[in-house]
Structures are given as structure tokens and as C-alpha cells.
């Protein structure tokens, strides 16, 4: 058989919908300045699908820093991987400031969040080690675990009793293999919005020997007194062995970092293949990240505004009877009962008739018969935006129950 003969987008879980979804439900184009309201297919929509949590994407100081750095350095400098010819004082400064902000000894930059945590897992573990991870971990963690040549155990989401059982199994295995144990979880889980039980997990260190890696992509900049994340929020930041976050959320940029003991970070600098063999982050990204981090530290009012919007949105939805699950963060899921074709009609109605753009999540991410609308409130939304959205959601929920969305969805041309 020819390899290409068996490859078809229609045979993939997401691609099976591509004939009618491409350009509308999947790969949509939001255009214009990053803001609460943007253009979608030529019309203005109220946008709840951007991880611009504290509003830095178009902050004037950020735009100026990005522009000045691009004018001075262009996008090419530095050329080469950091180990060879791509290191600069500013890359090292950013690592130092990030480490200090999250109360760790050192930090290493990664070009991308997904690539970063995947390659860190690959670098840190060998075939004698055992990895134990939360069942709702992000795809980057799951893929990193798949690369692991040794044993891996998964515990049901935030189930501490089961985690203890998996640690018992892992402890027996490493006693024979001479390996070690790593536990991986998230600070904020990006779909449901709840926090990982970091306090309970670190308490298990009294009983078991393991190291803890936390992916806090959605918690960095949004959670904790200073925005240093869920570890700070739960009072256990000093007990997280390795702290990871991306720049793609609160920092409104691209790239990522991992912070931890100086010894381990230095090991990663010389061992992480995805960085050793990849060009360094361009200077505008690095200088832009320094400015973003400065604002994150010096302007707590941005985070305060975010939480004003979050609380108004979540309390307003709950008061109207909506199920928003177990969220403890800005991530706001709205769960409705319905089938795939009803979901398509509902979102079409929201976008075309209510001018509201949010993400839709269906099976297999959520169970069959469940429609999840995922809202990401930010500091640039207003309370008027919140009220407009709650009103629209109330109306489309009533339509869904009445059967108004039972008709099959017609093909939407991109």
C-alpha cells in the first residue's frame, strides 16, 4: 500500500468535520487589532477566545518595546542556536528575571511552550524512571510522556487517593530499576479552569520520594498575590521542583521557560535537543518579554481588572443557571446539553446574530451529548461586554432547549 493512500483528513477525530467547518469553526480568521472586539468574516464580534489575560497584547508600552527592538535588531539576530552562536546578555537577563519572579534559582528559555515541556520531559527522564501524571494534562505533557521509554502511570484528574496508589506502584518499580519518580500536573487546567491540587501533592513527599513538575501556563500572571502562579496561590511555590510556563497566555507573546534548581537547569541547557539544535529566540521576542514581565510585576491593576471581569462573568452565568463546572480561574467553560449538529447551529447563531465569538468544544474532549463553550475573560473586556454576553447566552440556551437548533448544519464556505 502507498502511504498516502491511507492518509485522509476525514479519518481524524477533528478533521472529519473539516468539509463544513474549515474557515469558520476550525481555522477561523480573527482580524484587526487584538482587542475585545475584532473582525470575523467582515463583521465586528465580541471576542472571548484570546488568552490575552491581562491585556498586554496591545499595551502601548509593549507595542513600543516590540517595535523598537525590531527596528534595532530585526528578526534575524541572534543567528544560530544559543549553545553555538545565538546567546546574548538579554536572553540571560530574561532567564534570571523569570527565575526570580517565580522564586527559583535559575530558568531556561524555550522557543515554544508545547515543544518546551515535551523536550524537558524527554531530557529529564530515562528508561529506568517512572512518570506519574494527571489524566487531564495538556497534549504537550501527554506527548512528552509518550516519548518516555520507561513506565508511566496516569491518575484520574485531581484524584489524590489514586495518585497515592500510583506512587506506591512507581516506588516498587524504581526500587528494582534504580530509577526515580516524576509527578506532572498543571497549575490551572485549560479546559475546565480548575487548579491542580498542588498543596495535596507536595504533602505526599512526606511519604514518597518524587520530584514535581508543574505546567502553569494559565496560572502564570493570573494567579497568586503577585501573579507568580498557582504555587503562590496555594502557598507551595517553594515545594514545586520544576515550574513551567509559556509566554502565549498572560505575556501575550511566544516562547516559554522552565525554572528550578540551578544544577538541573544547567543540565537542561546542555541536554535539551530541541534547544541545542534550534535557533535562539529572536531579539524582539526577548526584549518584548522583558517589557511584558516588567508590566506584569509593576502593574497589579491589570490583574485586578482581569479578576473584576472574571467574577462578574462567572457569577452572572451562575445566577442565570448555567453550569460552569469547577473553574477556579479566569478560564470559564459553559456546559450545555446537546448534540454536535445542535452545537454548530448554536455557535452559528451566536456569531451571526449576536456577534459573539467564543470557542466550542465537543466530543472527544467532552462526553457525547455535551456542548462546551469556552470563554476567556481578559483585562480589556468591560462589564458591559459581560452583560451583553450573558444575555445572548441566556437566549441561545432557551433556543437550544426549544429545539430551534435541531436542523442539520449546512455547509459553511470559507
Overview of the molecule:
The chain is an alpha/beta fold and 414 residues long. The chain has two domains: 3-53 and 300-402, Aspartate Aminotransferase, domain 1; 60-298, Type I PLP-dependent aspartate aminotransferase-like (Major domain) (Aspartate Aminotransferase, domain 2, 3-Layer(aba) Sandwich), CATH 3.40.640. Helices cover 41% and strands 15% of the residues. The protein has helices spanning 18-21, 60-73, 82-86, 89-101, 113-124, 139-147, 160-177, 198-203, 230-234, 262-269, 273-276, 283-298, 300-319, 340-353, 383-402; strands at residues 30-31, 37-40, 43-47, 106-110, 130-134, 151-155, 181-186, 211-215, 242-246, 256-260, 332-337, 356-357, 359-361, 370-375. Helix 9 (230-234) links the parallel strand 8 (211-215) and strand 9. The longest helix is centred in the C-terminal third of the chain and has 20 residues, at 300-319. The model has no long low-confidence stretch (mean pLDDT 94).
Please identify which CATH superfamily of the largest domain we are dealing with.
Answer: Type I PLP-dependent aspartate aminotransferase-like (Major domain)
Instruction: Give Rg in angstroms.
Output: 22 Å
CATH topology of the largest domain, which one? Answer: Aspartate Aminotransferase, domain 2
Q: Please tally the β strands and state the result.
A: 14
Oligomer: single chain
* Domains, number: 2
- Class by SSE composition: alpha/beta
The largest sheet, given as strand count, sense and whether it forms a barrel, is: 7 strands, mixed
CATH architecture of the largest domain: 3-Layer(aba) Sandwich
| Amount of beta strand | 15-25%
Order of helices and strands: HEEEHHHEHEHEHEHEHEEHHHHEHEEEH
- Please tell me the overall pLDDT: 94
Instruction: Report the CATH C-level class of the largest domain.
Output: Alpha Beta
Q: Give the distance, in angstroms, between the N- and C-terminal Cα atoms.
A: 33 Å
Order of neighbouring strands in the sheet with most strands: 4-10-9-8-7-5-6
Question: Into which percent range does the helicity of residues fall?
Answer: 40-55%
Q: Helical element count?
A: 15
Q: Name the poorly predicted regions.
A: none
Q: Based on CA inertia axes, which overall geometry fits? A: globular
Amino acid at each position: 500500500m502507498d502511504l498516502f493512500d491511507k492518509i485522509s483528513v476525514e479519518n481524524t477525530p477533528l478533521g472529519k468535520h473539516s468539509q463544513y467547518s474549515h474557515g469558520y469553526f476550525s481555522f477561523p480568521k480573527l482580524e484587526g487589532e487584538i482587542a475585545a472586539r475584532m473582525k470575523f468574516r467582515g463583521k465586528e464580534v465580541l471576542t472571548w477566545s484570546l488568552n490575552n489575560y491581562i491585556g498586554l497584547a496591545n499595551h502601548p508600552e509593549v507595542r513600543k518595546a516590540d517595535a523598537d527592538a525590531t527596528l534595532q535588531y530585526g528578526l534575524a539576530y541572534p543567528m544560530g542556536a544559543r549553545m553555538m552562536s545565538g546567546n546574548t546578555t538579554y536572553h540571560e537577563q530574561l532567564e534570571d528575571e523569570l527565575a526570580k519572579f517565580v522564586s527559583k534559582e535559575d530558568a531556561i528559555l524555550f522557543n515554544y511552550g508545547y515543544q518546551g515541556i515535551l523536550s524537558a520531559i524527554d531530557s529529564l527522564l530515562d528508561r529506568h524512571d517512572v512518570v506519574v501524571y494527571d489524566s487531564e494534562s495538556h497534549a504537550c505533557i501527554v506527548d512528552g510522556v509518550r516519548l518516555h521509554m520507561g513506565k508511566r502511570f496516569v491518575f484520574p484528574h485531581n484524584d489524590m487517593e489514586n495518585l497515592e496508589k500510583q506512587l506506591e506502584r512507581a516506588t516498587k518499580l524504581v526500587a528494582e530499576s534504580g530509577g526515580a519518580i516524576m509527578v506532572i500536573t498543571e497549575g490551572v487546567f485549560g479546559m475546565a479552569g480548575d487548579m491542580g491540587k498542588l498543596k495535596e501533592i507536595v504533602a505526599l513527599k512526606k511519604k514518597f520520594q518524587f520530584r514535581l513538575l508543574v505546567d502553569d501556563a494559565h496560572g502564570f500572571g493570573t494567579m497568586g498575590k503577585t501573579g507568580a502562579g498557582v504555587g503562590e496561590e496555594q502557598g507551595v511555590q517553594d515545594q514545586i521542583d520544576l515550574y513551567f510556563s509559556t509566554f502565549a497566555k498572560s505575556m501575550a507573546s511566544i516562547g516559554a521557560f522552565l525554572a528550578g534548581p540551578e544544577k538541573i537547569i544547567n543540565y537542561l541547557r546542555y541536554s535539551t535537543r530541541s534547544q541545542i539544535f534550534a535557533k535562539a529566540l529572536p531579539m524582539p521576542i526577548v526584549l518584548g518579554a522583558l517589557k511584558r514581565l516588567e508590566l506584569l510585576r509593576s502593574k497589579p491593576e491589570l490583574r485586578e481588572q482581569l479578576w473584576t471581569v472574571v467574577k462578574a462573568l462567572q457569577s452572572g452565568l451562575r445566577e442565570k443557571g448555567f453550569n460552569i463546572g469547577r473553574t477556579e480561574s479566569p478560564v470559564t467553560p459553559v456546559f450545555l446539553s446537546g448534540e454536535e449538529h445542535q452545537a454548530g447551529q448554536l455557535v452559528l447563531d451566536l456569531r451571526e446574530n449576536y456577534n459573539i465569538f467564543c470557542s466550542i468544544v465537543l466530543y472527544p474532549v467532552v462526553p457525547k451529548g455535551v456542548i462546551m463553550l469556552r470563554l476567556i475573560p481578559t483585562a480589556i473586556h468591560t462589564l458591559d461586554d459581560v452583560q451583553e454576553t450573558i444575555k445572548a447566552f441566556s437566549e441561545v440556551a432557551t433556543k437550544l432547549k426549544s429545539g430551534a437548533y435541531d436542523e442539520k448544519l449546512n455547509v459553511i464556505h470559507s
